[in-house]
């Protein structure tokens, strides 16, 4: 389904009114907290895309149009000579070899990018390219809360417009989703949420072997963040789980204990095993490297982290590995939905309870699934989770059809409609005022 041209031109006109003339060297950036920051050449696409996403999202640009604009502007910037933005070089010595990493001036590069974005808005107002969305049904519900923690260190990414953002025009549907659970600060989670999907799209195996692209991109993102962590003295890390739907296949990859699960015809399907120190293979790997796994209220690597793999954690490498595991599954059309969440959710809610919670929500809301993630987050909080909680639900079928199928098959119902003594009735409490929800639909 293509975006109506008249509506797109109206949005472009609105953007140009907010951005009437090109930015000069001293002009403030339209949306940037750290415009003068240094960034490496590899970081440029992700940082520019995230900057533009916030800028365009703040002006209510439709995601399909925003993704297409971002791709066109980044493509033009990366074709220019980036050496004019050179800020400094960082030299490192490894095993006697000297590697040089060029850093670019973020402020100058971002001004160039916004001017390219403005030029493209002008061009597209005159002649709009075709903007085609996904052919398959997707409905996305996401919700995240800080809970009682001092800081919110979770991040999540929902990108049904994966093809448009990266200019992939091979007529194969692609959609990307990820959840990151930071620890020791939010820097690693922010970084992974900004760069991992960029690395996936640019990976040499993205077309032939998407699972390998996902796995390799975790390692690449880890290496990129470690370079940043060393020069900026950052200590944080993040677990992460990502899912990439390509045509009729689901590809996943993960580090740590954030998880993805699938529900198929009302049944919970386990897709992965989290990386925890008590796993026998993880414990053996850590001990072979000279580390240890000890029990201190839970199993921990070297007495500190309760996960054995993560992006970042520079002072715990190589015991905390950035290498991801991955898997691939065929989608037959019988799948109901995917659920990605951090351990703050899965430590409080069992996978098979997810099915009952979602079904109960759909029954109470006549098949409307837009706020199902809020219900699940509330369930985890009510069930004792004190951690940050992030839940991202991707419906692969219309939730009204899922509800209808369940009502036709009483054996699949775990909760009686309207039952006063339902074990899930107490989960319908209101969210606290620290919550942050977001929903998107695609059809």
Automatic annotation (TrEMBL):
<dbReference type="GO" id="GO:0010634">
    <property type="term" value="P:positive regulation of epithelial cell migration"/>
</dbReference>
<comment type="subunit">
    <text>Associates with FEM1B.</text>
</comment>
<feature type="domain" description="PPM-type phosphatase">
    <location>
        <begin position="139"/>
        <end position="396"/>
    </location>
</feature>
<dbReference type="GO" id="GO:0035556">
    <property type="term" value="P:intracellular signal transduction"/>
</dbReference>
<keyword id="KW-0053">Apoptosis</keyword>
<dbReference type="GO" id="GO:0071466">
    <property type="term" value="P:cellular response to xenobiotic stimulus"/>
</dbReference>
<dbReference type="GO" id="GO:0005829">
    <property type="term" value="C:cytosol"/>
</dbReference>
<keyword id="KW-0479">Metal-binding</keyword>
<dbReference type="InterPro" id="IPR001932">
    <property type="entry name" value="PPM-type_phosphatase-like_dom"/>
</dbReference>
<dbReference type="InterPro" id="IPR036457">
    <property type="entry name" value="PPM-type-like_dom_sf"/>
</dbReference>
<keyword id="KW-0464">Manganese</keyword>
<dbReference type="InterPro" id="IPR000222">
    <property type="entry name" value="PP2C_BS"/>
</dbReference>
<protein>
    <recommendedName>
        <fullName>Protein phosphatase 1F</fullName>
        <ecNumber>3.1.3.16</ecNumber>
    </recommendedName>
</protein>
<dbReference type="GO" id="GO:0008138">
    <property type="term" value="F:protein tyrosine/serine/threonine phosphatase activity"/>
</dbReference>
<dbReference type="InterPro" id="IPR015655">
    <property type="entry name" value="PP2C"/>
</dbReference>
<keyword id="KW-0460">Magnesium</keyword>
<dbReference type="GO" id="GO:0010628">
    <property type="term" value="P:positive regulation of gene expression"/>
</dbReference>
<dbReference type="GO" id="GO:0033192">
    <property type="term" value="F:calmodulin-dependent protein phosphatase activity"/>
</dbReference>
<dbReference type="GO" id="GO:0046872">
    <property type="term" value="F:metal ion binding"/>
</dbReference>
<dbReference type="GO" id="GO:0045892">
    <property type="term" value="P:negative regulation of DNA-templated transcription"/>
</dbReference>
<dbReference type="GO" id="GO:2000048">
    <property type="term" value="P:negative regulation of cell-cell adhesion mediated by cadherin"/>
</dbReference>
<comment type="function">
    <text>Dephosphorylates and concomitantly deactivates CaM-kinase II activated upon autophosphorylation, and CaM-kinases IV and I activated upon phosphorylation by CaM-kinase kinase. Promotes apoptosis.</text>
</comment>
<dbReference type="GO" id="GO:0051496">
    <property type="term" value="P:positive regulation of stress fiber assembly"/>
</dbReference>
<feature type="region of interest" description="Disordered">
    <location>
        <begin position="424"/>
        <end position="443"/>
    </location>
</feature>
<dbReference type="Pfam" id="PF00481">
    <property type="entry name" value="PP2C"/>
</dbReference>
<dbReference type="GO" id="GO:0006915">
    <property type="term" value="P:apoptotic process"/>
</dbReference>
<dbReference type="GO" id="GO:0005634">
    <property type="term" value="C:nucleus"/>
</dbReference>
<comment type="similarity">
    <text>Belongs to the PP2C family.</text>
</comment>
<keyword id="KW-0904">Protein phosphatase</keyword>
<keyword id="KW-0597">Phosphoprotein</keyword>
<dbReference type="GO" id="GO:0051894">
    <property type="term" value="P:positive regulation of focal adhesion assembly"/>
</dbReference>
<dbReference type="GO" id="GO:0032991">
    <property type="term" value="C:protein-containing complex"/>
</dbReference>
<dbReference type="GO" id="GO:0050921">
    <property type="term" value="P:positive regulation of chemotaxis"/>
</dbReference>
<keyword id="KW-0378">Hydrolase</keyword>
<dbReference type="GO" id="GO:0051224">
    <property type="term" value="P:negative regulation of protein transport"/>
</dbReference>
<feature type="compositionally biased region" description="Polar residues">
    <location>
        <begin position="425"/>
        <end position="443"/>
    </location>
</feature>
<dbReference type="GO" id="GO:0045927">
    <property type="term" value="P:positive regulation of growth"/>
</dbReference>
């Amino acid at each position: 389904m293509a975006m109506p041209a008249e509506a797109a031109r109206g949005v472009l006109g609105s953007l140009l009114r907010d951005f009437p003339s090109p930015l000069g060297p001293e002009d403030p950036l339209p949306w940037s907290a750290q415009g003068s920051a240094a960034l490496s050449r590899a970081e440029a696409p992700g940082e520019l895309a995230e900057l533009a996403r916030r800028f365009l999202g703040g002006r209510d640009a439709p995601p399909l149009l925003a993704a297409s604009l971002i791709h066109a502007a980044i493509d033009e910037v990366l074709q220019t000579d980036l050496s004019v933005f050179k800020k400094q070089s960082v030299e490192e010595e490894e095993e006697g070899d000297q590697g040089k990493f060029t850093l670019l001036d973020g402020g100058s590069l971002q001004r160039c990018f916004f001017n390219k974005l403005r030029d493209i808005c002008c061009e597209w107002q005159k002649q709009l390219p075709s903007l085609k969305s996904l052919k398959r049904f997707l409905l996305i519900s996401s919700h995240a809360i800080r809970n009682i923690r001092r800081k919110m260190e979770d991040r999540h990414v929902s990108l049904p417009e994966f093809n448009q953002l990266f200019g992939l025009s091979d007529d194969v549907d692609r959609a990307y989703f990820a959840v990151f659970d930071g620890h020791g600060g939010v820097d690693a989670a922010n970084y992974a949420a900004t760069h991992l999907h960029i690395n996936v799209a640019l990976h040499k195996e993205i077309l032939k072997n998407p699972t390998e692209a996902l796995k390799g991109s975790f390692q690449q993102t880890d290496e990129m963040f470690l370079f940043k962590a060393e020069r900026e003295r950052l200590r944080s890390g993040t677990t992460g789980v990502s899912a990439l739907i390509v045509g009729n296949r689901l590809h996943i990859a993960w580090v740590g204990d954030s998880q993805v699960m699938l529900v198929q015809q009302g049944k919970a399907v386990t897709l992965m095993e989290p990386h925890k120190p008590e796993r026998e293979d993880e414990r053996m790997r850590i001990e072979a490297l000279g580390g240890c796994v000890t029990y201190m209220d839970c199993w921990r690597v070297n007495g500190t982290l309760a996960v054995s793999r993560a992006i970042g954690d520079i002072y715990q490498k190589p015991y905390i590995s950035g290498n991801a595991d991955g898997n691939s599954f065929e989608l037959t059309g019988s799948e109901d939905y995917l659920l990605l969440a951090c351990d703050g959710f899965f430590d409080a809610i069992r996978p098979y309870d997810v099915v009952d919670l979602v079904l109960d929500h759909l029954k109470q809301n006549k098949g409307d699934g837009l706020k199902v993630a809020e219900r699940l987050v509330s369930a985890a909080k009510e069930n004792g989770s004190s951690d940050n909680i992030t839940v991202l639900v991707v419906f692969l079928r219309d939730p009204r059809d899922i509800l209808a199928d369940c009502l036709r098959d009483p054996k699949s119902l775990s909760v009686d409609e309207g039952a006063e003594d339902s074990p899930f009735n107490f989960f319908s409490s209101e969210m606290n005022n620290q919550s942050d929800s977001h929903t998107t639909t695609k059809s």
